[in-house]
Write a structure and sequence with these properties.
2 domains; alpha+beta
Length: 342
Amino acid sequence: MMEQASWRSVVTRTGAGDRTAAEEGVRLAYRQAGLEAPARIVWARSPHEAVRILMGTAPAESMGLGDTGPSVRETVVGGPWAAARDHAHQQLGPEGWSGHWRATGAALWESTRTLTERVRSRIVEDLATDRREEGRIRLLLLDAALGQHDAAWLSAFDPDDTGPLAGIAAVARNAGWWWPYEKVAVISERPLSLHRDEAGRLDRGDGPALRYGDGFVLYAWRGMPVPAAFLDELTALTPERIRAEENAELRRVMLEHYGYDRYLDESGAVPVHRDETGVLWRVELLGDEDVVMVEVVNSTPEPDGTSRTYWLRVPPSTRRAREGVAWTFGLAAEVYEPAQQT
């Protein structure tokens, strides 16, 4: 049995795991499903390479997979998951299970699901040359068990070393995605590096946020996919360059990196309203919503006697400074009457 924190750490593990333990986990999962162990187990450096191996387009040294037989994912993985879920429902009841899931795997699954969807999308984008091939790749991706990325579900069931999920759990602790077929299993290594923000989103400003050993990478800024070359621009941004960016989502990334307050200061923005609560600023952006911020001064002095200025981004519909400050507290402007502004 593993603590919840340990299962959470499984998702973020990088580098080589214990291949022997992972392979034993695969064989155990087959046996527990009533199947013979696969005749061969083949390793890939990433899910991307695993799909290429299954398609027969990987480098020569990885080819020669031979007849894999049909996918047995439903038997080896789907069946045990369903049985564990049904048992939990019987023990806890629908409401009890819902509360248990919220307390264990729900939050972890939200961030993990986004990551797995990003990996799938990038593999399809990289490898599909037409609609027919895209369909084939998507089917291959559906054949995959998620290995370490199944940790959210494993944290809810917390299997022991002898239960029906023991084999699946052993693979998750030591490897990434894996593909169970009748005669062959293909296992992907974990990534070499993973960078996330405090919300669990892929995030890195100076390189790939996710990197595998075969060169498969994902670039992201606070969860949003970005081109590799885009990150190189972030260190040399100017208000003019930000305004010239036609992609609204990339422009938002630029603004976050540059700093909204700095952008307002250097772009020649003018205040549109001021009152005792602060100053409201607005910058119009072509093809995107306006950047609207309230400038407020902390009334509690710092230890050195100075007062810090804060910039609060507020909805584009905001027209008055008090309205913007009230919105940050979840209040309407007419009921916002702070005894002391902090």
